[in-house]
Amino acid sequence: MEPTSPMDRVRAIDLARGIRIALVVLGHTPLPAWLNGPLTTFRLPLFFLVSGYAFSWVGSSTATAWGTG
User: Fold this and answer.
1) Boundaries of each Acyltransferase domain copy (predicted)?
2) Which residues contact residue 23 at a Cβ distance below 8 angstroms, ignoring those fewer than 6 apart?
3) Among residues 17, 25, 30, 49, which one has the fewest Cβ atoms lying within 10 Å of its Cβ?
4) Between the CA of residue 45 and those of 2, 9, 10, 20, 60, what are the distances in Å?
């Protein structure tokens, strides 16, 4: 699989990936309830949404991607 050049990357997706990682890390720290409550509603859905958008089947076989091979 060829590495992605910086010109092919979408900066908004990279920013969203950084934010979602920071939110998941914050979820594993002792935050006050008034701050952690609202973050809980979209922290993991955002993680899965951005991960799914950034995933590529190129270079992957369906057998190994689903763990059956």
Assistant:
1) 11-58
2) 39, 43, 46, 47
3) 30
4) 29, 22, 20, 9, 24
Q: Where would I find the beta strands (DSSP E) of 1-69?
A: none
Position of tokens 């979408």?
A: 10
- Locate the domains of the chain by residue range: 11-55
Among candidates 9, 11, 14, 21, which has minimal Cα distance to 47? 21
Query: What 8-state DSSP symbol labels residue 2?
Result: P
pTM above 0.85, yes or no: no
* pLDDT (tens digit per residue) in 23-59: 888 888 898 888 888 888 888 888 788 777 777 666 5
